[in-house]
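Re: [help] complex structure
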Amino acid sequence: AQSVSQHNHHVILSEAASLELGCNYSYGGTVNLFWYVQYPGQHLQLLLKYFSGDPLVKGIKGFEAEFIKSKFSFNLRKPSVQWSDTAEYFCAVNAGSGGGADGLTFGKGTHLIIQP
Amino acid sequence: EAGVAQSPRYKIIEKRQSVAFWCNPISGHATLYWYQQILGQGPKLLIQFQNNGVVDDSQLPKDRFSAERLKGVDSTLKIQPAKLEDSAVYLCASSPGTFDRYTDTQYFGPGTRLTVL
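Output below.
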């Protein structure tokens, strides 16, 4: 079974600061990796995903993530955050061949607060 | 495009009572999921349907939880009887179900917040 660990449960940054949220997974085989975001009062929505190929993936709203297989990591980054990035961020993994359609295993989430 | 609909949005019950949640997926989506999100944790998959068949229910506590997806569209999740530890947000999600790993994506509903007293 897979598991996901997110290192920081609460992060507070100022606008324009750079962001990196850590995510490590535990699974010995091929995995599919995801970052989801939940803005205040809104649904969970997909930020970006990695299935194969270029380990640096770009998502919506200027976010990117890098898959490092040797470290079992999939860290989320953004060079300059905005107040509107305040949200809960979840890293998720599945191990099926169905990609995004297979059930997901989520981390506990990181609550990000951006101060104006 | 309408999103995933869930009702009710909030429910408060006493322990040992029964409760049911309803989900209407995005039109045409073959795959439907129920997740449980306890406060301070990430969502946990309870059950996954492909059309009206169960794909994965390995984490569903079957002694008290049940789910069905009649006719392969709407779904209901029931808890009978509820325990204090069932207090959580219950999320429904759907995906096209093509299992094209590059395009198939799960879309989440707003969730039902259950409080068991």
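The CA atoms of residues 22 and 76 of chain B lie 5 Å apart.
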